[in-house]
Amino acid sequence: VLEGDAGEITDxxxxxxxxxxxxxxxxxxxxxxxxxISRLQTGKFVIDRRLTDISKLMHQEVDxxxxxxxxxxxxxxxxxxxxxxxxxxxxxxxxQVVMNFIDNAIFYSKPDTTIKVKLIVEDDIMTVTVKDTGxxxxxxxxxHLFKKFFRASNARKQRPDGTGVGLYLAKRVITEHGGRIIFxxxxxxxxxxxxxxxxxxxxLAPADNADELDK
Length: 215
Fold this sequence. Notes:
The chain is of the alpha+beta class.
């Protein structure tokens, strides 16, 4: 409908449809977050690694949130190398991590600013970063940021409906892949959330490799 498949729609109708679509997507992600919390508590949290086109994954997640960014007077910028190896990762869970970082950046950024998403490949490490110029995180609260259900005080004021499980799950997902979370923040100036993945340890294939067999 958003693409006009059911007939021409006005800009206002398009905006309302997009907001409804975005809200439903967030609800799905929220349900998935709590399902994963439940799996962690019962020992059923499993990382299902399959050969994944990381570049394609990143483009899809950035594009899916671009309209939301524009609606909040933000620019969403994405950069990557010319060639990006495919990795054996849990695509669904990695998507949730990327979506969480970008979604947070959109909600906590000031209007008329740019959110910079980067995919970097250097030596044996693949790095993804999301940098904003938003509210940042108070220094005294940063050590607790990736704990389950924790939310920074200024984030609670700006977005009362948050759950405090997104960053906790992000760290767990990346750790289970043998990687690490990277994070920098200055209150009132912005934050950088990201992660590093060890490519050789995970298993990789050239960017133009068509072999999609599971590892």
